[in-house]
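Predict structure. Input: GNAT family N-acetyltransferase, 408 residues.
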Amino acid sequence: MNIRPLTEGDLPQCRSLWSYCFQDDEAFLDLYFGTYFEDGGGIGAFEGDELIGQVLFTPYRLQVRGRALPAKFLCGVSVWPERRGGGVTTKLMAAALAALRAEGVPIAPLSPFSPDFYRRYGFEVLASGYQGACELSRITARPGGGERFVRDPGTPAMLQAYRAFAKNYGGVILRDEKEMDYVMGDNALEGGSAVALLRGGREAPAGSGTPGGSGDPGTGTPGGSGTSGGSGDPWAGYLLYRITPEGVRVREMVYADPLARQSLLAFLASHYSTAKRAVWREPGVAMMDQGFGDGRGIFTLQPEGMYRVVDVEKAVAALALPEPERPFTLRVRDSRAPWNDGVFRFSGEKGRMSARPAYEKPEGELDIGAFTAYLMGGFTPAELRAAGRLRGGLPELSRERVFMWETY
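Output follows.
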């Protein structure tokens, strides 16, 4: 078996394997591979000239503790069924991690078909969200004043609303116009619709939304707008959805604040003559039951995105965390990435935290998935200890837990 980077010449086989394993049609394959595939954009396992397994990389910027980090989203992890059980995926994942490390990628996200399957490779679920599902008659939310919905408002408007939403969460993809176009294109392929919430009574023709005021995804600055009553952005939210025989199914629900959420829920409820139910997903928010006559039984907690530190030293440096009050040592267990498996000393360099290999007795010990949770802020040391994922002591990196949410 030969493991090597994928090239343009491998594209027909990559598409064929993806199509079989994920049952996507040619239109989607044209969209995904036409948008993201390039030489070196993944790792393939070959027997002779035959591709038997692959891992693809989708380049994104990932928001972690308010900073924009370069990331590669692992997707299209697939092996022909007749070749499974022979360690192909294990070899692919090892090669993928080594390739990402060589590129300087500090953290890798993925969206799992099975969390337990990817935990064996060091990934951990950090972004859990809620699936909402109910009869439309149970939604009692009312739209706010001075706002209206605009159908198909165009990429700039959707992107502005997305940025106002994304600044509130860790682990989200910081989209640019190319990525927003891809999401909207995929939604259209599924027969979906797009509607955005325009605030302030400002006239804005379709497609004229102007990004800005919601943070620059290229700088790592979260931005300062999108709060209730204080947003300078007229585009305050959107829905990507489609109407099916089972009801209104929402692909993506984005809102700048709780008032915008109420308006989006009211929009769903207005489909009472077309559908009976709605299904959507969203992060946990304060007063989630607000907007429903009786919110019991509507929301189900769902594990969503998984993340993994690719390189301990590079990830700590990329986050530029404040220098710790005192140096501390930590044993990280990582059987899949030997460069991470060992004791590290965390101290300060020029006012920033740094991590270096050490030959000292560690104060604490944890696996790479738990370390990822600690570094990204998805769980506190106390929570990791209570879950049996941390032995010994570990200082807090911040006083507040980071609310995580997955977008892709």
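Residues 203-231 have pLDDT under 50 and may be disordered.
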